[in-house]
Amino acid sequence: MATFKYNALTSAGRLMKGTIEAGSREEAGELLKQMELAVNSIEKAKPKKPKTAIGRNEFMLFNQQLASITKAGIPLERGLRELASDISSKSMRKLIDAIAGELEAGVSIEEAFEKRQKRFPPLYGRILKAGVETGRLSEMLTSLNRHLELANQTRRIIFEALSYPAVILALAAVILTAVFLMIIPQFGTILTEMTEGSELPKLTRLFLSMAENVVPFWIGVGFLIVVILFIVRILSSFPAGRRFKESLFLRALVIGRVYHSSVLSRMAESMAMMVAAGSDMPACLRLGSGSTGSEKLVLESEMLASQIEQGANILGAGQFCKMIPRLFLYSIQLGTQRNELQDNLYSLGQMYSEQARCGQARLQAVFLPVMLIVVGGILAIAVLSMFLPMITIITNLSV
Hints:
Layout: E1 2-9, E2 15-22, H1 25-34, E3 38-44, H2 56-71, H3 76-86, H4 90-104, H5 109-114, H6 124-134, H7 137-194, H8 202-212, H9 214-235, H10 239-250, H11 255-276, H12 281-290, H13 295-309, H14 314-317, H15 326-337, H16 341-398
Antiparallel strand pairs: 1-2, 1-3
Helix pairs in contact: 2-3, 2-7, 3-4, 6-7, 6-11, 7-8, 7-11, 7-16, 11-12, 11-16, 12-13, 15-16
């Protein structure tokens, strides 16, 4: 498949420019005619550099503005045009204008965003399509923004909790390295003479040994960091590796619970959106888990969906699930039986969202004090090791 640039007129006589993928120039012309466009010119487009995804904050602002516009009853195409005119980012403005142009030409919402899936979050096009079809677009966009804010808040709490201790640790490392390189070696002999040949305390001997090996130590630390980053990058390149990383993350105290609750909340509300769009349960499971970015949820949901397609009920088919709680499955089954599935899924989403917020508060209250205690402990041990020989001398003199 190649990419072709085209220049055409819509049925309303409006000039439209864009790109289309096709096997040949003739096939591209036929596709454009099917879209009821009068083609002026078609030429093969030059390969473009890979485009990066939209920034989190930029996307959240765009999504919230779009939710406000659609809540006011403005059609999606017109709303996108209005947003594009107010956006300062040139690349973002071109992106939204291009999408609005395709929607005005008759391209479906899902297809327009699917072409740009590397720029937007997973299933964004499907969420917009479901919102338009059900008349709940503003509600769905607001729900999506709430989950994005929850994820950003968790990242911010972790960053704030780590940044201050990290700065202290960095300064402590610089100071201790200078002490090990320039001061401790000079006082090693003096301390030995002061103790009159008697054995120095073990902690002091440990720090004297560290002073002799401080440069190889930091070289080893740097090499270890590079190896860890390389392993993380390798693991991120295939699904099984990402699942392994996720398993380690889920075992982290407090952070793991916050992450688990967040992805379950996102999955529940995404499934509710798919139910509103008329999707069946296997499709809801697959699409809902795909919107979370969790490889473990995607794998479990795929296996669960396959068993449901073979005739099993969701509660019986979910015996193997570890990421998806029993309560989650039971609520889905009960909602299906009572014809209240959408409401049950929204309730689940709100429940897990609240659990994530409680976990965030606990993380903020506990994480920073713990890190400060750890940093203070390291510095206290370093100071103590310096004074131990003097304490030994004073004890010997007093005896």
